[in-house]
Amino acid sequence: MCPDRTGVPLRLIAIALAAICSVAAPAAPDRPRPDDPAEIAAAFPSSVELALVAANLADQRTTPAGRAMLQAWQIFDADGGLTRAWAELAEILRLEPGRAFDELIGDRVALLVEGFQTEQPRWVVIARVSKQTEGLVRSRLRASPRQIKRGVRILSLERGAFELAVSSGQWIAERNDRAVMALAPTHSRDLLERLVPLLAGEGLKGSYREQAGFTALAQDATGTAMAVIRPDVAAGPLILWATPSGDEWTVSIRTDASLATRWGLHAGEYSRRTCATWRSLGQDTALALEGVPPMLPGIVWSMMPEPIAQARAAMDEPSGGQGQRRVLAVSIGEGPLDRAPLRATLGREVDSIDRFAPEADRAAQRLVTGLGGSGDTANFGGLFPGAVRDVQFTRQGVAGVSWACVRTDAAETGDPGWWLVDVVVRSGPGLQTSSERIGQVADALAAGSAPVDRASLCSGVARPQRLLGLAANLPTSVRSALMPLAVLARLDTIRWSAWWEPDGGVRGEFRLSFSR
Predict the structure, then answer these.
(1) What pairs with residue 342 in β-bridges?
(2) Stated pTM of the model
């Protein structure tokens, strides 16, 4: 998940994930291996904040993953304008829409973006096409010559609204039967002209290749698609690449120590190696995540109903405990979101249950009182910390609050464990009892708590089709900014984990299963 303090727009991550997943299927066996996306990206200017690179899209368009993601991208085209524009372009070129896709962006394509957080980001799309297609585009779109630089022809399109650069330069790979086209809106002219040496088959000064961070991170990047994100020019990049894995697709993520530090992550602070295993949770689990606080995105908490938000605040109150990790597991039953059974189980790691239990009981009592219940109910004063304290409510908006301190790791010395608080917002048929729910979450935490050879930062599972419905709890302005996340609604399940690398960087994996 995206940390709170990255400064990276969540939509940037979502777009990168969606784009590279749409082309992650294997290349057809009778075709050569796709061009290396890391080698392609290495030639781009390091000033580019987002670079998406894909090869052999024509092969992927008809795969299950490709079809699913192309359908998902329709979320960006609510009024059908993009579909109509593509159909009009295909008609002008006298090609079927699918054939136009294959001819224009089916071989190799890259999207470069600068100034992503400005009102008018600069962007350029570069595509390698056949020389026949290049000639067709120039003639059918009535491109007007503007200038020639280093043998690269720069043309004007749509009465000056766009510029098209055309070259026979090789653009990394040797393909004499190909031409290179780069399209940019007029406001992105500066970026386009800085790319002219690359389009001419020459190298660029100040490329990603010259950045030590990029070279180290990309050395084992494989797959048919790749994204490079530079959320902070003073730190190394964030690199994502996609590879197939049976019926799933794995998106790998890497960053170096400099970016991890700017995210507020410091390797020396996290010595515990717990990494929850969530496969035992039911299919009603919309979200389950565990990790250090910077890895739990604030936007997720913002989606939660008020009682859950109050429980989070209550769990942050007690001093001591010394545990870094937090847990959030959200279950949503069947039915319309505003009436479906809904609960969240929150957790806080503690080093000593016996010492922390009295403070946990006091904080839970304050939570119960704040939600309109009796503060004297289930006040154990820290005795029998493993016993589940349960308070039922009659007021609308919350059905019950339960809590316990549970030991989950017998291999550790002392009595470490978790303080778990279960908040039932709406009860309903089939809902587990609070004791069952707390026990289930504790089992999931214990299943992955044995020491491993890498320090875990976070792990989780999400079922976007249910989870994204909670976005209705967000302010309208925030929902609008998160529109690209709706692309993820085409996914059935996302599982992820992130951990420390020996060099202080961070590596992570997303496993994505598409809806059928």
Answers:
(1) 332, 426
(2) 0.75
